[in-house]
């Protein structure tokens, strides 16, 4: 059967006499109303961990080539002479994720054109929609926008080797704009801003800049005091984003870039258009904002666990001072560092001078053990609680070179079915906590309904995780969550499981995770998981506080998840580096 390939569902363009394959942010679960006798969804596939590693390695090789070329081109445009590392710090996260997104679409489209009998392709007008975004944060969401992803797929397939007939139509939008409710603008605290301005001179004397540490505010100030720094609050000036400048972007020249395959050729054709505004049109604003901040202009150490990611002004400050020999330290801020395949390729591990982990030690790669910063503020376990709290995976993740978001959706659907196998008395005591990364999805009602239709009650969306955990007899995570590490460090009864949709464990950590598997904390077999919960529910404490269970938890924590005890060792680490 011959089909037409479409990237955007528009009934006005569909003919009842034709058959269609729909590819994009659509699937048969969330969009059953779009399924008709002549429209099929492209079923996105899972891949093995071996293939995933190959994809990451392939993309990393291209990333390094592209970054080297962009270093030359961006320096030329901005009349600067910044290092490759400067641009890695400022642009690395965005660039890697853009490459992943393009590669994933290209791989799927290659499969469609190869294995399906496609007749015609209906595209978004590739000249009238621009792929740029304002900043790195916006990039996390643009791939979820139907217009943006349809435009990307159109631009990719328009350059692929195919003889299929192509028909173009205009998109209602011309570029992606982050919705106001998701905009990552800093919340202005007038009291702290006044405090910042008043003590501006003293802040500028700090030799160790601690910014967005991920630690409780008062503990962060205590660290500064212990390190003989003035307790600080840094205000970085925002700026208004400018309009897209085609002339400026046309100066990015990839003519001498040697492409080794079709994908690479398509990728470099898209990069000048797709680069975020902060790298080109607003680059001078970044520089001005960083210079006008109350940050020391020549710090000895810059320390953060979050500021390297989405704060473009602070990233410029880091990059600029690293060129003046400041040391750049990053601390682990969340789950599955080192244990998941993707973490090998994280920008923060590549660009920092020292990476402070929650327990992992690898001096040859500048990884040094610290502690789980989430455990500075303790959570008390309520032994009298009767709830099984199920903390679910987000369906929205950062980009990857495979269909991660789609597979996470399947995993969440599977979880709702899995829980139905619990004993009735446990099901009545089960409460579901939907992740924020699902709550912001446009199809949130569908995912909440998955559990409600099976009789499960949901926690209020505004109830924070600490309150949920405090309200739990047992916590069940359906992914390798930060909460798993946090609970194990604080000795709170916890179980988590992974399956073929989201089990991306690095092979070198299989023995480490077997420590938890042997005591019924980690599962990759769903039948064994349900049987275990049913068996221990009446005797949670007997199982959890058993000598073997406690001993294995301590072994695991010592390797990857050191609980916080005191700040002495941590502060001494910094003092040695000054």
Q: Can you characterise this structure?
A:
With 578 residues, the protein is α/β, with parallel strands linked by helices. It has 3 domains: 1-177, no CATH class; 190-234 and 294-371, no CATH class; 387-560, 3-Layer(aba) Sandwich (Rossmann fold), CATH 3.40.50. The chain is 42% helix and 11% strand. The chain is built from 23 helices and 16 strands. It has helices spanning 49-78, 84-115, 136-142, 146-157, 190-198, 200-203, 217-226, 246-249, 262-274, 283-291, 312-322, 347-351, 404-418, 424-428, 436-439, 444-452, 465-470, 482-489, 510-517, 526-536, 540-544, 547-560, 568-577, and strands at 3-6, 20-22, 39-41, 118-124, 165-169, 208-210, 301-304, 327-331, 354-357, 367-369, 387-391, 430-433, 457-458, 472-477, 494-497, 522-523. Strands 13-12-11-14-15-16 form a 6-stranded parallel beta sheet, with helices on both faces. Helix 2 crosses helix 4 and helix 2 (84-115) packs across helix 11 (312-322). The longest helix is centred in the first third of the chain and has 32 residues, at 84-115. The protein is globular and about 70 Å long. The model has no long low-confidence stretch (mean pLDDT 92).
What is the fold's blueprint, element by element?
Layout: E1 3-6, E2 20-22, E3 39-41, H1 49-78, H2 84-115, E4 118-124, H3 136-142, H4 146-157, E5 165-169, H5 190-198, H6 200-203, E6 208-210, H7 217-226, H8 246-249, H9 262-274, H10 283-291, E7 301-304, H11 312-322, E8 327-331, H12 347-351, E9 354-357, E10 367-369, E11 387-391, H13 404-418, H14 424-428, E12 430-433, H15 436-439, H16 444-452, E13 457-458, H17 465-470, E14 472-477, H18 482-489, E15 494-497, H19 510-517, E16 522-523, H20 526-536, H21 540-544, H22 547-560, H23 568-577
Parallel strand pairs: 1-2, 1-4, 2-3, 4-5, 6-7, 7-8, 8-9, 9-10, 11-12, 11-14, 12-13, 14-15, 15-16
Helix pairs in contact: 1-2, 2-4, 2-11, 10-11, 19-22
